[in-house]
Write a structure and sequence with these properties.
The chain is mostly helical. The chain has two helices and no strands.
């Protein structure tokens, strides 16, 4: 569960908008 929250946060740091929505949809 911690990984799910950590993954999006890491992507935000990398500034990857296309990956954020994909993860949210998959999650």
């Amino acid at each position: 569960m911690t990984y799910s929250v950590s993954l999006p946060y890491v992507f935000v740091s990398l500034k990857t908008p296309p990956t954020l929505p994909q993860l949210a949809l998959r999650n």
